Amino acid sequence: MLKVITQKITQDDLYGFCDAHFKTFVKFVADVKHNILAIGGELHADTEALLLENGSIQQDLWGGNFYPWKDPSDRLEFTSFINIRPRNNNPNMEVLDETIRNHIRELCERLLLKTDETMSLPEPGE
């Protein structure tokens, strides 16, 4: 299940994306130029490819993981193989540029879960 997100999704949808693969988190790729996210899939490369097919360019794409049940200060991981780009001054898997990290944080808060929002764990059997 992959989706390009341009507007805030519901908590039920977010739960569905988490549940589809990893249960406690969802992978995402942010297009920091177009202010959109692609979420879902087993690999960041899956959502990266979806964005590239829809007109994004590589230098604007950054991958990470979103953990909706964690404290807001711990929800984001800025780590992905697609982030290894020495030509863009990012020689490892973690997004190093603080401006880009802040942009990604703002996108996730706007499109996935705001800082003041919490998600409860689903009841058994849901």
Description:
Helices cover 28% and strands 18% of the residues. The chain is α+β, with helices and mostly antiparallel strands and 126 residues long. The radius of gyration is 14 Å and the shape is globular. It has one domain. A 5-stranded antiparallel β-sheet has the order 1-3-2-4-5, sandwiched between helices. The model has no long low-confidence stretch (mean pLDDT 94). It starts with a strand and ends in a 15-residue tail after the last helix. The longest helix has 14 residues, at 98-111.
Write a concise keyword list for the protein shown above.
126 residues; five-stranded antiparallel β-sheet; 18% strand
Number of domains: 1
Low-confidence stretches: none
Query: So what's the oligomer here?
Result: single chain
How many distinct beta strands? 5
Provide the spatial order of strands within the biggest beta sheet.
1-3-2-4-5
Estimated structural class: alpha+beta
Mean pLDDT: 94
Helix content: 25-40%
Instruction: Report the span from N to C terminus.
Output: 19 Å
Main β-sheet description: 5 strands, antiparallel
The run of helices and strands is EHEEHEEH
- Strand percentage lies at 15-25%
Our Rg estimate from Cα atoms comes to: 14 Å
